[in-house]
Amino acid sequence: MSEKILIVEDEFIVANDLRLMLERAGYLVCGIANSVPAAQALLQLHHPRLVLLDIYLKGAQTGIDLAYQLADEGIAFVYLSANSNQGVLEAAKATQPYGFLVKPFREKDVLVTLEIARYRLEHSLEARLQQEARLQAQLLELKNEASTWEETLGSMARILQHALPFDYLVVTLDRPQASRWSSLLRIGFDQYQMLDARALSTISGRSEADLQTLYTQMPAEAQSGWHNGDAFAELRQTQPLQQFLATTFDVAARLYVPLPLPNGAFRLAFYSRTPDTYTASHVALLNRLRPALLAHVTGETPAPAVPVPLPRPAASRFDGIIGRSHRLLQVLDQVAQVAPFDTSVLILGESGTGKEKIARALHDLSPRKSQPLVKVNCGALPASLIESELFGHEKGAFTGAIARRVGKFEQARGGTIFLDEIGEMPLDMQVKLLRVLQEKEIERIGGQAPISVDVRIVAATNRHLEKEVAEGRFRLDLYYRLNVFPVTLPPLRERKEDIPALAHHFAAQVTAKIRKPFPGIAEPMLTALTAYDWPGNIRELENILEQAVILNDGHTPLTLPRPLGHPRVAPSVSTPAALPAVKTLDDVKKLQDDTEREYITSVLRQTHGRIRGAGGAAELLNLKPTTLESRMARLGIAKHQP
Ligand SMILES: Nc1ncnc2c1ncn2[C@@H]1O[C@H](COP(=O)(O)OP(=O)(O)OP(=O)(O)O)[C@@H](O)[C@H]1O
Q1: Judging by DSSP bridges, how do beta strands 416-420 and 99-102 pair with one another?
Q2: Rounded to 5 degrees, what angle do the CA atoms 539, 545, 548 make?
Q3: Which of 95, 246, 513, 531 is the right S-S partner for 67, CB 3.0 to 4.6 Å?
Q4: Nearest to 166 by CA among 156, 175, 177, 181
Q5: Which CDD domains match (predicted)?
Q6: Which residues pair with 265 in a beta bridge?
Q7: Same domain, 481 and 498
């Protein structure tokens, strides 16, 4: 093996124990450092690929300070820590370590954690190199496309976005005769709006001349650099352009890279609304891409006088995923980034945030898209069935195994398996799953020989997996294997700007399904939807819209079917997927009437038959009492009973 490893630990006895342990396992320990400067010197000398890193060290700097440097240099690191407080753990976690070992450690845990770290390093390195090669090729291709300066910039933005996130980009081309600048605002996945001084003036209310001055009189910085969060807030105090961009586009971080040309420079300034977006690795990436980025600069054509919206790519890569909030776009960027590779992906997020939808998008964007995507709901399977469900069984393997059964892993061969609710998987199955991940082989129950399977694993959970690990319900080694590429879906309350588009989407979907006109959504309903916190996330929103459509008369805009946050009073209204087969218009009408009758009856049951007044059924249903009464008459609901 002879993998080089550095130990950064200030307790000599601990460090020495580790050294012996690692050497026994075949690692090459290239040194022991007890402080950050000592570690930096050894890093320069030996270039190890792995570092075991204590948090508290001799001197002022901690292991967390060193971790940022290690991450930038692509060196895998595993923290060694005694039980630290929550704040320190949070700070350590933010550096995205490859593993965590809590003192005192068992030899087995150290070796397993290091093995996982190596696996993750190889996979992330491989993925990074492949991604860079792809970026280079795509940027170089731009040179061959005959297009305007605007189109070239738009394509460049699209190519860079997934490796280098931004919400706004300013590109300046300095030439001895003149300088020119262009700017792009991200308005959707793969969609950008070109903004020149005139467009910016419309948005901000400042004069065009003013803006021209602001953009052109920025001192040209010679050095690359980035300002995140507080550092950007400080920069705003001294640079009026940054102040303008922060207030106009709500940006909170900036990355700046000047790329020198033989006579001039090509300058890129990326801005993000997420305060901690940029790192040295982004600067390094842009410098590596420099030849490809500059290749098209010389082939520019003059800009048209009027700003043009950039053309939309023919088909969005995320059809059916509604929303363009900054938080959702970040997730889609990650998905686009990881989709082409075989890397395992762990999708995290509260219930109903769209984890399954993202898993499908991931599969559809991958080279496996023409092969099956097989879903397994680990939470819904009894422990006794899960093994046979996943791996299959041979005829006669156990009582009741009357025929051979092919498991989900085999069904997914060449494709993707989506392990939903992975946090619910029993511990003994977790061991077997780990084996599949390591060996890429499964064994049918009662089978004679292992069967090799080429399957990409996408798992999802709404549980806090680290807590599950801490409480002994989830294996640490499996967690690290699955957590190679985590994607976290934000809850709906953190991206409220997506609510109106989602509401329209669901209403249109249900009306089309039950062939009812869609008269739009009333403004007060939209306001209430946006104000609400959505504990059930998108699924809850979808249900509300479905109920609103069913109760709607087909002419007046949709109104809330019940006060939001009010517990559902009707027996569950079926989701569109579960609607019975609807073949004729009469079926549609009957279905609508049945659902409406059921719903109104259950509300009346809750109000003990009271229609009018505060807390009455009419108020709960957001209807006029007279409207409710006439609906009840039509549906044959007696007033006094339900
Ligand atoms: N961005 C989106 N655009 C349109 N529909 C969405 C979006 N996100 C989720 N949905 C819809 O919301 C519903 C819930 O999504 P999904 O089942 O993917 O959530 P989940 O996080 O997997 O839920 P759970 O944790 O309960 O399994 C589905 O009907 C899905 O189609």
Answers
A1: unpaired
A2: 145
A3: 95
A4: 156
A5: AAA, REC_DC-like
A6: 174, 260
A7: no
Return the best residue to mutate from 345, 356, 358, 375 for the ligand 1 pocket (most ligand atoms within 8 A of CB).
Answer: 356
Q: Are residues 289 and 182 in the same domain?
A: yes
Residue 20 lies in a domain: yes
- How many domains does the chain fold into? 4
Residue 152 lies in a domain: yes
- Report pTM: 0.67
Residues 233 and 199 in one domain: yes
Q: Both 513 and 478 in a single domain?
A: no
Question: Are residues 37 and 93 both part of a single domain?
Answer: yes
Amino acid at 142: L
Token pair, residue 149, equals: 């300066």
Provide the token pair at 575: 């989701």
| Whether residue 335 is found in the same domain as residue 466 | yes
Distance from C-alpha of 7 to C-alpha of 80, rounded to nearest angstrom: 10
The distance from CA 57 to its chain's CA centroid, rounded to whole angstroms, is: 35
Do both 483 and 359 map to the same domain? yes
The pLDDT tens digits of the residues spanning 3-15 come to 899 999 999 999 9
Instruction: Give the C-alpha separation, 547 to 562, whole Å.
Output: 9
Q: What are the C-alpha distances in Å from 639 to residues 595, 600, 613? A: 18, 11, 15
Nearest CA to ligand 1 atom 16: 354
| C-alpha 352 – ligand 1 centre gap (Å) | 5
- Please report, as a single letter, which amino acid is at residue 534: W
In this model, does residue 48 exceed pLDDT 90?
Answer: yes
Q: Same domain for 599 and 622?
A: yes
pLDDT digits (tens, 9 = 90+) for 202-228: 989 999 999 988 888 777 788 888 999
Instruction: Tell me which of 65 and 396 has the higher pLDDT.
Output: 65
Q: How far apart are CA 243 and CA 220, in angstroms?
A: 17
Range of the domain at 28: 4-126
Phi, psi of 8 (to 5 degrees): -115, 100
What lines the ligand 1 site, CB under 6 Å? Answer: 321-323, 349, 351-357, 420, 462, 502, 505, 538-539, 542
Mind giving me the DSSP string for 380-428? TS-HHHHHHHHHEE-TTSSTT--S-EE-HHHHTTTSEEEEETGGGS-HH
- 347 and 355 in contact (C-beta within 8 Å)? yes
Number of H helices, E strands in the chain: 25, 20
Element (H, E) at 358: helix 355-364
Q: Check pLDDT > 70 for residue 125.
A: no
Cα(234) to ligand 1 centroid in Å equals 40
What's the distance, CA 415 to chain centroid? 21
Higher pLDDT, 303 or 212: 212
Query: Does residue 401 belong to any structural domain of this protein?
Result: yes
**CATH number (domain holding residue 280):** 3.30.450.80
In this structure, is residue 548 part of a structural domain? yes
Kindly state the average pLDDT of the residues 360-375: 94
Per-residue pLDDT for 356 more than 80?
yes
- What is the tens place of the pLDDT at every residue in 79-104? 988 766 667 777 887 888 888 887 77
Report d(CA 73, CA 300) in Å as an integer.
35
